[in-house]
Amino acid sequence: MISAQQVVDLALAEARRLGRADETIVLVTDRADAALRWANNTMTTNGESISRTITVISIVRRGDDAHVGSVRSSAVDPAVIADLVSASQRAAAAAPEARDSAPSLPGGDAPADWDAPVPRTSAEVFLGVAGDLARGFRGPDTLFGYARHVVETTFVATSHGLRRRFTQPTGSVEINAKRGGASAWAGVSTPDFVGVQSDSMLEELATRLSWSERAVELPAGRYETIMPPSTVADMMIYLTWTMGGRGAQEGRTALAAPGGGTRVGEKLTPLPLTLYSDPRASGLECSPFVAVATSSERASVFDNGMAIDRVDWIRDGVITALAYPRAAAAEFDAPVAVGADNLLMTGGAASLSEMVANTERGLLLTTLWYIREVDPSVLLLTGLTRDGVYLVEDGAVTAAVNNFRFNESPLDLLRRATEAGVSEVTLPREWGDWATRAQMPSLRIPDFHMSSVSQAQ
């Protein structure tokens, strides 16, 4: 493989030579993966890989109109670059007018580390986790799970001289523990595996399995429910995926206001919660610029390389922002807002254990699974509970209960929440493959809707 920087230079040079596009944007991402798997208290596989994706975006301008062609390849042979550029320019010439057309971003000096080699990772990053697991394999519980570490370095370059580079480390550990017919899950996210306390995860799993020694069958219905940070993250992440300004302005989402406009400015919850994304959030750092291969309602290829700042989507319980790329912001006279690849929400002072201790009777809902949208007009989601729903009585967990299907809207959960606990870095169970950088509080919901009993075990 030639270097990513050489790929950028070759692609831009070929675009100039062909001359069939007014602008060219090149994105190159070099990715290093390491993975570790275990099952039935035995390490099964581990591996390392490196890969590359190259995206060439050509823009053809005809008066006020712009036409975009985006072509992507995972080939590493330099010989493919010329064909990639040519295909991108042909696609742009044949494309319809781009709705998200925006002026070119100005160039500037390349970052100081532009020419530096890209960092890698290896299976050695899992040494601490593997040691804890080896001790856990000798215990009474049967363990299954997966650890991964990905290091991606993305380069963005344009024919106008803009240059951006960012290295994103992403890691997670997920462990399933089984004892008898009971199962429990725990997961953590980490950028570098420093300080990952997998032994504490095993202790927590053992505690949850001990709760399952008593089982209680409950019917469907509404229950006071404590949602730990992982489950809150799964619901709030889906909320932000729907917070495109265009969809709300056009009346297609739950963020549209009755009679027209959006719900920005509406008081959503009496709790002083702030939901935000911030590329510089400590421990959850992520790319501070746009790098997208295709446009969506929340990001535009025309904005590639544009700086991303903190956005407060909800501030002190009030909806304060929706996602607007530059073109949509100009169309709807709204502030430009593009979300970073993380999500955080403030909380309160109570720990999860203190929230349990203050519960007379309710459920502790540890993980969600198979979340799908039912009604976009109110953002009603459905899904399943899995690997641990527990009965709380008189301030203590007393039993495991059966699984349920639930029907809830994250907007409505925020409206009805009566307490928020301490905000903690967490790994969402459902979206953990795509969204590992989250920090959420626990939430107390007085009437969480378990719509039916699930037979899933």
Automatic annotation (TrEMBL):
Alphabetical keyword list: Hydrolase, Protease
Region of interest (Disordered), residue spans: 93-116
Low complexity compositional bias, start-end: 93-104
PANTHER family, sorted: CONSERVED PROTEIN, TLDD PROTEIN
Name used for this protein in its record: Putative Zn-dependent protease-like protein
InterPro entries linked to this entry: Metalloprtase-TldD/E_C (IPR045569), TldD/PmbA_N (IPR035068), TldD/PmbA_sf (IPR036059)
Keyword Protease carried by entry: yes
Origin organism lineage: Bacteria, Bacillati, Actinomycetota, Actinomycetes, Mycobacteriales
A single GO BP: proteolysis
Domain of life of the source: Bacteria
Segments forming domain Metalloprotease TldD/E C-terminal: 221-451
GO molecular function: metallopeptidase activity
